[in-house]
Amino acid sequence: xxxxxxxxxxxxxxxxxxxxxxxxxxxxxxxxxxxxxxxxxxxxxxxxxxxxxxxxxxxxxxxxxxxxxxxxxxxxxxxxxxxxxxxxxxxxxxxxxxxxxxxxxxxxxxxxxxxxxxxxxxxxxxxxxxxxxxxxxxxxxxxxxxxxxxxxxxxxxxxxxxxxxxxxxxxxxxxxxxxxxxxxxxxxxxxxxxxxxxxxxxxxxxxxxxxxxxxxxxxxxxxxxxxxxxxxxxxxxxxxxxxxxxxxxxxxxxxxxxxxxxxxxxxxxxxxxxxxxxxxxxxxxxxxxxx
Length: 291
Prior knowledge:
Largest sheet: 4 strands, parallel
Order of helices and strands: HEHEHEHHEHHHHHHH
Number of strands: 4
Distance between the termini: 58 Å
Structural class: mainly alpha
């Protein structure tokens, strides 16, 4: 009989704060899965074989467009550039670069008259954050309307890190019914982007929501994306703040990530409904796909 005391002791490997071990993906396998996901959700479940994507010139919308091309064919993916007067010209150039690389039909619609029709006439003192939110919602109005015109579905581009941090405009970036990147950390989106051949200029520039002049994602967060993703991955695995700090991460960085997650739970839920029955939608009535 085998003595328990003679069994080998297997110890958990020590976490390296500089390692992306918890963020590793197989880009080829993930790409294949996401392409199948898009076809299944759009074509089989909803009977729609065309997609509309807002292409910002950033890595998320670039990866989403690449995936849509693989899922539906370039001729069935419609890319929209939707600049505001303060949008970076570089973003427009990079978006056009991707559009030409993929050979998808595209259109540029300036949203300044649309956004300023409200802002300049009714809210001339709006701060940059409010202006950014108005622009994000204007863009989504256009994408949904173009989807109806083109018999297509708008495809979301938000990644898991942004969703967990609440780094999006409610009822704008999160509005599309299908989102292939929603369960991928930003670090993983970059890995996928390299595999899919997204241009280097897009990969190497500082990520930005481009809602405010000079804005960068890392500047808004106060932490680098790789560190944020490593900490976030541990939090989602169930580790507590003190445990993560003991693994070698800075206490201040852990606090930033925890605060952003804890303060934005409401943005990841449908509107809170006053329940007066046992069939309240989103509470008791939880059919995953309601059709």
